[in-house]
Predict the 3D structure of the following.
Amino acid sequence: LAQAAENQLIPHPGVKPETPKLLCRQSIHLVPPPETRSAFDGLELTNLVREHPTHASQNQSPVNPTNRAQCSERTPKDAMSALRLPAGLKLLRRLVPPPTRPLASQYDYVIVGAGSAGCVLANELTKDASSSVLLIEAGGWDTNPLIHIPAGVYSVFKDPSVNWNWESEAEPGCGGRKIELPRGKVVGGSSSINAMVYMRGHPLDYDGWADADASLEPWRFERVLPYFKACERSDRGASAYRGGSGRLEVTRGATENVLYDAFLQAGEQAGQGTSDDLNGYKPEGVARLDRTVSRDGRRASAATAHLEPALARENLQLLRNAAVDKVEIDGRRATGVRLNGGELISAKREVLLCAGAIKTPQLLMLSGIGGKDQLGSIGVDVVADLGGVGQNLMDHACVNIAAGCRTSDAIDGLARPLQKAAVGARWLVDGKGWAASNAWEAGGLVFGSDAYPYPNLQYHFCPVHADYREGGGLTLRPGFQIQVDQLRPFSRGRVAITSRDPAADPSVRFNYLSDPRDAQELIEGVRRALDIVYAPAFNDFRAELRLPDTRNASDDELEAFVRRTCGTDYHPSGTAKMGSGSDAVVDAELRVHGVEGLRVVDASVLPSIVSGNLNAPVQMIARKAADVIRGVEGLPAERPEYHFDEHDDVAVAA
């Protein structure tokens, strides 16, 4: 790696080749020195064709004819062998930030936030060469190598250099505890620091949006499934349920460990069922989970998936380490944004807020869009009286069930320096092993009881007991762990601002468990998880029960456990609700009510939270929004058959 850096093998996208000798890849230019030239001949063109087929359609010529001829002489097997560069070299190339370009004073579109939604929008909008786009990110480039190594998530997801590291106010339903609120502050946003679980939510979540509000008919599941598929490149292959040619790499968890096998068998023994694909035909039961991890063992963030190709285009400018203070509004039209240094950047067409469910409502309120009483209390002039801004805050509250392991199959040994070094070395060579795992490779969507029309609980299973210490440290203990999420909470919180200072942290209260039905569902979830822990499949592995400390607790004791230990699964959403009601902030096309030229495109717009992790739904929303913004015809509806369609007690819109 050091030699590669010394030989300057890693110029960055956006730098045009000066001579025909340069081998240009869409994401990174690989420029070997003369003495190593033969080892790289033909490599990048083959890689380009395999990973980035759009180059051919854009009539770009990344290599000279001589190199193309050399490539054509290789057999497919030889070409694929040549592509197996050490994972460490691929990582090194990624860590070089793109070159900066002079900042213009005006763009067609100004996108605030280079997270899951912002990266998708930047890629889609710049496909029109006539449109100029500025993408603004408060954080920096994803230069921390642990971002890209899947197991590195546990070192970076609280790192203040890439994380806002907010926390909630004292939560009355959680014993007055403040709940951590990490959010990505880096290109890729939270997709660069999350645990990489890929879940879309249940199809009935989206049908429920349309059933509750007729204006949201465009968001019925049959209308959003094509956009999930368009974003995704699944290792399961293209099908009626999965996408095979999108930008986001999605792979099924496949790391071998007998505790994963025991978990799946236990789910069947406990009567909770199994599924081959929770994003496919049967979205219920326990399963090996999908992950946003590439086939060569690297994190697939929104930045690596969607932003990389866009950065090669002249009509995109990425502005890093730049905070936006407010949206500039003239009359009732958004005209641009004001940066924290005082610079005004104008938007000829639209301003697109993609800053997430905490930062987006803060920016709206600082810009005079929100409830008049809230804005008036801090002296902000009201532009649009929208009382729903910052309200309807939702999250997936969760609790952890943990037991010791009597065998050596738990992965607590990864905390030992020598084993950690060996795992890291293997990843640098071939991108495999535990460093290529997010650890939460199994999980499930299950029912707390027969009272629910579709699963209301989610499991994440890990073959180790991960115990977070005070101050953020992580201890790995021999054992295994099931995280239980309540998927559709009744409680609602809010985001507020207490100052006109844009640098001041927003005030956040989730109101976890303020509705007693939420506590009851988590109690049911604990009992369902304990049924798995005590299934026969775990008899050879299970040692002492650690969380909770007894299997035979009463409901009152379990409620106390839930309120004492529950936390967040890091899925804040809903604070700029989509719809037509009095509490809605944006319409079905994500336009802010009462303000022209301004849209919100992120998790803020969810009218109700979906039954699963949010990275995939947010990317879907952005991909669908891009078609609306560009005024192009949407993708045709698709509605394949699902397992739950066979049950008469579940109504599904055709």
Q: What stands out?
A: The first strand starts at residue 23 and ends at 24.
